Amino acid sequence: MFSVTEDRFGEHVVVGLRPGGAAQDATEANEEDVNLVAVQRIAGRIAEQFRAFMEGLGDVLPLGLLRVFDENELELLIEGMTKLDMDDWMRFTDYRGFKKTDRVIKWFWACRSWPARRKLRLLQFMTGTSRVPVNGSKDLQSSDGQRHSTIEKNGNPNRLPRSHTPLNRLNIRLYENYESLERKLRFAIKWVSFRFCLVGCARSQRFTCLCMEGLG
Known about the structure:
The chain folds into 2 domains: 3-68, no CATH class; 86-213, Hect, E3 ligase catalytic fold (2-Layer Sandwich).
């Protein structure tokens, strides 16, 4: 039969895949119609929910603005780029307690020689995302809007680096040499423990901080 049976809140409903499909046998002559099963399972069964979603989306964003993009362009706009431009990232990184000429900072940016996948994991450890906005690192977003990534001097050199992803901030210790920094940084981004920390801000009385802290 060219129909499928769906479970709708405990009720089994037979859905025809084309006019009169429930009464037609699947034979070699109409075997190609099995594609209709895929269409039904992927789109047909959620048509009502999808229609409601599109109506809600249209309330906040004119759908005409979206229709000028194909699916690949829209994905790029929403999720960003997977290719990380290290020069661009360095250009739009701020420092607290450090100068860009400090040796620890030079050691940190030596990561530009890392494999592409590891560099994206470093970006994710620092900012919470492994993708870069279409307009580059200057458009990185934080919990309070657009914010450059920041490297801050902080803590005991025996501990691992620590990140505050809502603020795009990475705390780096005063490591004694490049080898120590690289070893601890690689360990942190590989075995990062996601700790959801609700930190109440005294000024705004809102919970604003989600921390990703390296083990150790």
